[in-house]
Each structure stands twice: as structure tokens, then as C-alpha cells.
Amino acid sequence: MYFQEKAKIMDKEAIKRALRRIAHEIVERNKGIGNVVLIGIRRRGVPLAQRLQKILKEIEGVEVPVGSLDITLYRDDLNLRLDQPQVGKTDINFSIENKDVVLVDDVLYTGRTVRSALDALMDIGRPKTVQLAVLIDRGHRELPIRADYVGKNVPTSRKEQIEVRLEEIDGVDEVVIGEWKED
Ligand SMILES: O=P(O)(O)OC[C@H]1O[C@H](OP(=O)(O)OP(=O)(O)O)[C@H](O)[C@@H]1O
Ligand SMILES: O=c1cc[nH]c(=O)[nH]1
What we know:
binds 1-O-pyrophosphono-5-O-phosphono-alpha-D-ribofuranose
């Protein structure tokens, strides 16, 4: 199997602009960020949450808490995954009680990851609200879940795959659309 890239749909500047807009929307929706905390989902949601924290600090002068959530074991399609479940690190060293929690992920697809993240969150505490920010919404939801903040809506077919690449993990900032092909 190999990944055949079809198009670059966001470059470094586009990602930056999208995050900047989302940060402004978070401020507006919550009438400030005094009660906001950010929680990145697993791998690529975490650097995205950290970038949002930095932009929010620039525009509001306040540093909101950032945590990370690893929900691999909560996925309801766990037994369908070929790879072994990975128990990653959940790192939330602040209270989410009565907070406006903004969950951050790179791609929203079926919605199953977010459902699992909500489960994991509810085990930790009772937030006032939970909002969802994603860089890419590619459609094909299988659950009644929607994002509050979207970097870019990308119509896709189920065969396609969106790859979000971030400097902190992949050494480059870009979003590409492609397809997995047989060798
Ligand atoms: O809405 P869903 O259908 O749950 O898909 C979205 C999730 O899928 C991706 O993770 P993936 O499971 O591919 O793991 P990875 O990011 O570690 O590759 C992505 O990072 C989202 O977390
Ligand atoms: O296209 C997709 C679907 C799920 N997760 C991704 O990262 N990309």
C-alpha cells in the first residue's frame, strides 16, 4: 500500500490563518477566554491546541490551560482496528469542572474519536460546555456530532484520506488529500 497524494489543500499560511480565525471565534463565542480551557486530542490535536493557546495569548493577553487526551482505548471501533491499542498519555493537570472546554483535533470524519473523547472527559469532571475545534471537517459523520469551529470544510469521498502534517510532529505544515493504493 502506498499513499498517492492528489492535492495540497492547505499550506503553512492557510493553516496559520485558519487557527487565527478560530481563536477569534473562540473569544467571541465565549465572551472572552476567562473560563476557557483547551484540550488537544492525541497526536496532532495537541500541537494545534498549543498553537491556539499562543494566539489567544496574543489577542487577549491571557494564557489558557492546555491539556491532552488520549482516547485510543475508548474508541468504539477498537476491535475493528488492525493495530494494537495504544494507551497514550492523558495529561490534564487542571480542573475541567464548570469550564468551557474546547476539544481540538486535526480531522473530523465519522465523529467516533470525538465521541470517545467526550466519554473520557466525562470521566474526569463536569465541564460547563464542551466545544469542538477541528482543522479539517471532511464529512461522512456516523454520529450526531458537529464541530463548533472549522478551519476548512473539505468534501471527500470515503476512499480518500486527509493527511494533516504539522511541524512539531512531521517537520512541515501542510494538509494534503490523497488515496491509499495497492502496490
Ligand atoms: O472522526 P473519526 O472517524 O474518528 O476520525 C478522525 C480521527 O481520525 C484521525 O486519527 P486516526 O485514528 O487516523 O489516528 P492518527 O491520527 O494517529 O493517525 C484523526 O486524527 C482524528 O482524530
Ligand atoms: O481522512 C482522514 C480520516 C481520519 N483521519 C485522518 O487523519 N484523515
